[in-house]
Every structure is written in C-alpha cells, then in structure tokens.
C-alpha cells in the first residue's frame, strides 16, 4: 500500500496553517486600535458599507500616514466628539493648528444656526467634499483638540479668505 499521499496531505495542512498565521498578522497589525474598548464603532477610512476591500484583501490603515497628517488651513473629515455627551460623529472640520499628536479644529456643520451668527462663518457649497454639495457653516466659537489618529480623509485647503478670518482664533 502506497502511503506517500500522507506526506502530501501533511504538507498541504502545514502550508494552510502558515497562510492562516501570516494572514492573521497582516490583519491584526493595527495594535488593537480597531477594537471598540468602550467607544462607538467606526468605519474604516476608505470603506463605506458594502464596498469591497482593496485589491489583495488587505485593509487600509485607518490612520493618516505621516505624509498625509493634517495641516493648518486644511479641511478634513474626522471623528469629532459630541459637545453635549458621550460618543462622536464623523464630520468635516477645519484644522487650525497641529502640535504633536493633537490638532485643534473648528467643526463644520450643514445646519444654519441663525441665533449664533457671531460664531458662524458660511462656507461655499461643496467645500467639505459632501456628495450632496450642501452649504456648510464653520463654527468658530467652540474649538476642539482631536487626536491626529481620528482624522480620516483630507478634503483640501480652505478658501484663503476664510482662512484669513480664522487663522488667529485663540486656541
């Protein structure tokens, strides 16, 4: 009776085990950042619901790379905490300054707050990369410090006239 097929079976099982371990290392390289740990879950940066992963099946990092760190005068989508309670929302914001791992931002909203005109600056429609092209409003009366890791997607530079109005806000 020929038993050489056992050797081939063992080789296939070992190869499958090695592939599983290597794949686990590639998916688990986030260092636990993707776990909830009491926070609300967040989607990956480039992957809305139902969208396939990048070619090769590997996840893209949810943190900006060093070359794409937020810079002053840029509009970014970031995970911004609610002002009146726990939790956070993915929303556009204007970066005012970056110091170390923290950026000071002014949040951007699509709601027009008529009663708060003094701290609200209207932005041109489409300036935040919104698919609907809605009008947006920069709220300058409540600045926030955000960890750089919470920045998800760069939209681009803010209009220079807007930047001239907000660049010297106390932060």
From TrEMBL:
The chain crosses the membrane at residues 6-26. The keyword Membrane applies. Belongs to the PemK/MazF family. It comes from the Bacteria. Residues 52-70 have a biased composition (Low complexity). Coiled coil: none annotated. It comes from Streptomyces liliifuscus. SUPFAM superfamilies: Cell growth inhibitor/plasmid maintenance toxic component. The keyword Cell membrane does not apply. It holds the Pfam family PemK_toxin. Keywords: Membrane, Toxin-antitoxin system, Transmembrane, Transmembrane helix. One of its GO terms (molecular function) is DNA binding. Residues 26-70 are annotated as: Disordered. This is Type II toxin-antitoxin system PemK/MazF family toxin. The lineage of its organism: Bacteria, Bacillati, Actinomycetota, Actinomycetes, Kitasatosporales. InterPro entries: PemK-like, Plasmid_toxin/cell-grow_inhib.
